[in-house]
Amino acid sequence: MMNFAIYKSFPYQILFLLCIGVSLFANYELTFSIWFLTLLVTIKRKYSVTILRYIAVFLAILLVAIFSTLFSKTTAFLFIRDFTYLVKPILGLLVGYQLCRFSSKLALKVLVYTGLVISLLHLVMLFFTIIEFRTISVNLLRQHGGYFSDYEIYVLIILIFYKNLNVEISHKQRTILILVIGLSSFLYLARTNLIQFIILYVGLKGYLIYSQKSLKVILSVLFFIILGYTAIVYLKPKREGKGIQAFLYKIKIAPEEAFKTRINKEDWKDFNDNYRSFENIIAVKQVSSKGTRAVLFGEGLGSTLNLGRKVWTNDNEYVQYIPIVHNGYMTLFLKSGLLGVLLLLVFLVILYRQKKSNIEAVQAINYLLIGSSVFLIVSNWVFLGLYLKLDNKSIIIGFLIAIREVMIREHNSQKSIANEY
User: pTM to 2 decimals?
Assistant: First the structure.
């Protein structure tokens, strides 16, 4: 009977690994196809009000963008392309929710060991990159190994708080997993992953829920962050520096990079270092110039941002008109206006407001979701949040929601059995 149970869940484990792992290949068409096919083959008979409520918000954003399209000109290709972009969070949430067909203990192991596979693949990619180019350049390693991995940070947090989540794992296995996944996560040298780790760690401690103690902890964390940043500025890392110096330089320019309001387009250093801010400035000017309707409801599906010059993208394209920008809020402002941005904020508020539970593992999941909500505020600003083409956080959130429901059912079942005796 046990063998049959393991065999029955095995296809879902493979599908989960596939849906997470496909994002490593930087091919959005492939990612969307695998997620969509997985959605079709794993459809459930029942869905909780919670997951439907989250999906409803993103569906409303999509509908606003479709409505705006009625007042603009576009092509079938551009319309379909943007449709797939805006439907991605819905797809990810449903796929993650539908793939959780395990006990809570097995589901958590699936999360952890998928993280191990992803980390090993990343380390192998980095190894061959170093062998091929015979250098340890930060930009080169990130270009060939990937720019970030939100998934691995989630797994690290789960391993650190394994007792709270009731993850059944030996001390030796946990140590090895933390070392391998931790090394892989560090080698992405991603500022957002560092921020993500801090936010999720503080979140799992319960300090993202207001209290006098949490306020003191958050202020202390902010103090040490400012202290660390001051030290980095004092070190004066160079833009053309190699290794860790290049990473420190990116941290140094981070506050200005995403919030600068004036950029000298003729100065290539200023333009490249603050390109995210440049996108934001252009987005606000372009949409605002289209009138009140565009500001409120956006320019619709198929709309593009005119940068005024051609730039080289991470997709290895030289383009002037781009369908999405790094900033998720600005992307929605372009497609669905202020209403779309407001709806995204509604989602973040709903995700943050998790109902308190007396079940420790369930409350730990709640803390993880609360941390995800706070991190998404940052992620949406610098890296499109759940709308990023290579992002898999929507699957993680959907999976966590399903795990929580399984945990509650298991607890109630055990409680019912205990009452019978």
Answer: 0.92
Question: In the chain, how many H helices and how many E strands?
Answer: 18, 2
Residue with tokens 């298991």: 410
Q: For residue 141, give the H/E element and its range.
A: helix 138-145
Determine the residue type at 201: Y
pLDDT tens digits along 160-176: 999 999 999 999 999 99
Query: Within 10 Å of residue 367's Cβ, how many Cβ atoms?
Result: 24
Q: Among 185, 188, 186, which Cα is nearest to 129's? A: 188
CA atoms within 13 A on the CB side of 397: 31
Cα-based distances in Å from 341 to 65, 261, 351, 380: 11, 20, 16, 11
| Neighbouring-strand partners of residue 321 | 306
Decide if 178 contacts 159 (C-beta within 8 A).
Answer: yes
Element (H, E) at 218: helix 212-235
Q: Compute the distance between CA of residue 60 and CA of residue 350 in angstroms, rounded to an integer.
A: 15
Q: Read off the pLDDT of residues 360-387 as tens digits, 9 standing for 90 and up.
A: 999 999 999 999 999 999 999 988 899 9
Rounded-to-integer distance, Cα 194 and Cα 399, Å: 23
Which contacts of 101-104 are long-range, i.e. CB under 8 A and separated by 24 or more positions? 101/9, 101/12, 101/42, 102/9, 102/12, 102/13, 102/406, 103/406, 103/410, 104/166, 104/361, 104/403, 104/406, 104/407, 104/410
What is the three-class DSSP state of 311? Answer: strand
Give the C-alpha separation, 157 to 136, whole Å.
28
Q: Are 368 and 354 in contact (CB under 8 A)?
A: no
C-alpha torsion sign, points 211, 213, 219, 221: negative
Chain-centre distance for alpha carbon 195: 12
Q: Which of 385, 367, 366, 363 is nearest to 375 (CA)?
A: 385
